[in-house]
Design goal:
By secondary structure, this protein is an alpha/beta fold. The protein has 2 domains: about 210 residues, 3-Layer(aba) Sandwich (Rossmann fold), CATH 3.40.50; about 130 residues, 3-Layer(aba) Sandwich (Rossmann fold). It contains 12 helices and 14 strands.
């Protein structure tokens, strides 16, 4: 069903610079990006923080007059991290002809949205997911700023091997995201002639982890790799510790590091999370200093964490591509501009894109929660 303009404006309330919302098709006076993400529900902090980071970057650009005197707007719709809602949102957004879809959150939602974007020949840029299914086979309209889950799980298994922790179990979300992470762990372990000693699942948007706790603690693993969202992973960690488990917990980046730390409190001490973005807690890189300073100056509800850093960096990549393109960008010129980026140093964080490679980074490092709400990298 087509979304009329007044309804669309209400649905997009809260998006950047939407005091007035003319039709997206008439993008003569501004550049419009569109996002479907969870802004409510158990994964909401991922959508909220990514969106805030992106908005922070775009507001900086707009404060300088925008690009070619055009402001960049990011409209949003809430999908609650549910694929069906995301697909419906995507159809609505595409019916209004945005320049690109940007910053979708999650594997199952992105898997539902990407075919729609591809059919509409609309760029699908910087999804917050590392699933290989979105990277292979090559898709001309899909562009990734972050490393893959295979990159992350390889780094985790390498760390476990170095520490002599050979009995590895996997707790994963029972959907495309969780299975992508499980595949990555199994692939990395197979390279060591090993396999998980046990696996257990949780349903998306659920914290019903009791059965998984029983299954995995019974296997007495040295470490448990978790591939889920922050509420379920926190519930599992608390349940496993209450059951007497004393091993180590490892998570991939999608968990939402600060959100996980907030959920766990003191139970977070020693929990490891792989990261695909520069740390906003260590100011070694210029991009980290730039980002933290921007958050400080913006004030309000802006926060410096890995999820908002990813939104900020993803928006910077988008802006860099738009700057290199024509004054009146189209979806096709945006594809060409992104493919023409080559290697770009964004304040100590390198990204590379070309006509044959749309995955900008393979950067991974490990971080650890301290138990008092902080993250050490």
């Amino acid at each position: 069903m087509s979304l009329n303009r007044r309804t669309f404006a209400r649905a997009a309330a809260g998006a950047a610079a939407l005091a007035a919302f003319p039709a997206l098709r008439a993008q003569t006076d501004r550049i419009v990006l569109a996002q479907s993400a969870p802004f409510t529900g158990p994964a909401s902090q991922l959508g909220i923080q990514f969106h805030q980071g992106a908005r922070l970057c775009l507001e900086q650009v707009n404060a300088q007059g925008g690009l070619n005197k055009k402001p960049i707007e990011l409209v949003k719709l809430d999908d609650g991290y549910e694929p069906d809602r995301c697909a419906e949102n995507t159809r609505k957004l595409l019916s209004e002809d945005p320049l690109a879809l940007f910053g979708y959150i999650g594997t199952p939602t992105s898997v539902a949205a990407l075919p729609l974007a591809t059919a509409a020949k609309t760029p699908f840029i910087a999804p917050f997911t590392g699933a290989m299914a979105l990277r292979q086979p090559f898709n001309r309209y899909a562009f990734h700023v972050r490393a893959s889950y295979n990159d992350e799980t390889a780094a985790i298994v390498r760390q476990l091997t170095n520490l002599g922790l050979n009995k590895v179990a996997v707790f994963y979300q029972n959907d495309a995201y969780g299975k992508a992470g499980l595949d990555g762990v199994q692939l990395a372990l197979a390279a060591q002639n090993a396999k998980p000693v046990a696996v257990a699942t949780v349903e998306r948007n659920s914290v019903d982890v009791a059965a998984a706790v029983r299954t995995l603690t019974a296997a007495r693993p040295d470490a448990i790799v978790q591939v889920g969202a922050y509420k379920a992973c926190a519930a599992f960690i608390k349940g496993a510790k209450a059951a007497g488990y004393g091993g180590t917990f490892y998570n991939v980046s999608f968990v939402g590091t600060q959100a996980l730390a907030d959920e766990l409190g003191k139970d977070g001490a020693g929990v490891v999370v792989s990261q695909v973005m520069p740390s906003p807690y260590s100011l070694v890189r210029p991009i980290s200093r730039e980002f933290v300073d921007a958050v400080r100056k913006a004030g309000g509800d802006y926060q410096a964490n890995f999820s908002s850093m990813e939104g900020y960096l993803a928006a910077k990549v988008m802006v860099e591509a738009l700057r290199r393109g024509p004054a009146k960008p189209t979806s096709e010129t945006l594809v060409a501009s992104l493919e023409g980026l080559g290697t770009v140093n964004l304040g100590g964080f390198n990204i590379t894109m070309s006509t044959t490679d749309h995955v900008a980074s393979s950067f991974v490092e490990l971080s650890m929660l301290t138990g008092d709400g902080r993250i050490r990298t």
